[in-house]
Amino acid sequence: MTVVFMDRDGVINANRSDYVKSVDEFVVLPGALEGLARLRTAGVKVVVVSNQAAVGKGLLDAAELERISEKMRQTVSEGGGEIAGVYYCIHRKDESCDCRKPGTGMLCKASEEMGFPLEGSYFIGDAESDIIAGSKVGCTTIFVLTGRTPLEDMAHWKVKPNFVAPNLPAAVDFILDSENLRA
Question: Which residues of the chain, if any, have pLDDT below 70?
Fold first, then answer.
């Protein structure tokens, strides 16, 4: 079974410098729904793992985060895709938890609860913390350029991604080709 772990903001939906704080601020990126639908059609499982420090900072509450999650899942489903699981870290950076990426707590919890392997899976993200977290657990990492991190920043990263894609559909192409799942 092929499993793709992915970040939310900057991969599925537009990232905001002031956080996605409401359902109205959740805006799907161009091509994301099509890419997610192709993963579902190919039998690939998708799990979202996302740092959401806005909750820890008091900028939104857990109930609104859940509403945003439901909107994401519904929108993806209506577009032909499916999200098997959603995991969030709501802590601030200064809380030093093990679930906040680049920590691996969310990934390990998702793997344990859902029975999905980490090693040999894929991780799509738009930040260095995503690439580090995915690398630590043996995922093939893909950096997408649809988030806030410009490609030039990657030159200074200690851990480099296995692949760089302009967007989620291109990352999906890479995964489907790598797994010989392209229809």
Answer: 183
